[in-house]
Sequence to fold (286 residues):
Amino acid sequence: MSPGPKWKIRLLETPDEMILVEGLERMVWPGSETDVTPYHLLLTAAHNGGLVLGAFVGEELVGVAFGFPGFYPTPDGPRLKHCSHILAVHPEWRGRGIGFALKRAQWQLVRHQGIDRITWTYDPLLSRNAFLNIARLGAVCNTYLRSAYGEMRDQLNTGLPSDRFQVDWWVNTQRVERRLGRRPRPVMTLDHYLSAETPLLAARLDLGGTPRPASEPLHLNGTLLLVEIPADFNALKQVDLAQARSWRFYVREIFENAFQAGYLVTDFVYEEGRSFYVLMQGESAF
Ligand SMILES: CC(C)(COP(=O)(O)OP(=O)(O)OC[C@H]1O[C@@H](n2cnc3c(N)ncnc32)[C@H](O)[C@@H]1OP(=O)(O)O)[C@@H](O)C(=O)NCCC(=O)NCCS
Fold:
């Protein structure tokens, strides 16, 4: 489907292929066998409109994207969407475009099914995921889910409330087509935003240059807002769980208020080791 320099992406359809997915999930989210998606569920989904996409290097599965059709409510009744549930890339193969290529393949196939919306959730404090989802893929967000999955049991997620962004990927919009097209789109830099006097929330820098959640009261004003998050939240969690918790609650407050005030997350800037969400007030998601 979309060949990378070293990997190939294809749809998975057999029991043996789904068992490879179980193995990859076990590696990416270690520590809870209960949380591995069972191969028979993947298989049943794949045979009933779901999509299990694999990235292979030779015979080795190095990445997977899994989702299935679902519904969302509208005033005219339920409408079809694709609910994307899992995206995972083997740790040794990250940062080479495999996550992007898997999502691009998902985008093509979901469009082919005649569906125009894909949703998924991710931890808003994960800078790499944010960059991929918002900046590279063109997903937008105005939905903050507190403790979306309750107490999670795997090693990657244990210890903090499982707050999530639920993002919308409107797959037929110009926003998304431009970002997935062959011609690179002009990228907005931090300088662009700061020279437009965009207010910056968060992030007092400590002596080591690490951002810490600000303690001042929240002022949301202006059409544009920048919200800084740590560039490597997983590393921070390892060394300072208390500070990681402060970030969780700080970011929860900002985004719950911002979404209520009509802001939409439209972009993400990752520059020189610092990470910023861009929010616009009154911007359409389409
Ligand atoms: C999220 C994940 C799937 C991304 O896969 P990937 O193959 O590394 O993704 P890509 O290489 O296509 O894209 C990652 C982008 O983030 C950038 N990036 C790397 N570190 C970053 C950071 N700290 N902050 C922001 N962006 C970062 C990369 O440069 C790359 O952008 P580029 O293609 O413009 O260079 C992978 O990291 C993963 O499996 N994580 C664990 C499981 C997970 O979180 N899954 C998603 C939620 S269910």
In short: The chain has a mean pLDDT of 91. The pocket of coenzyme A is lined by residues 28, 86-89, 94-100, 122, 127-129, 131-132, 136, 231-232, 270, 275 (CB under 6 Å). The longest helix spans residues 241-260. Residues 262 and 281 are 6 Å apart (CA to CA).
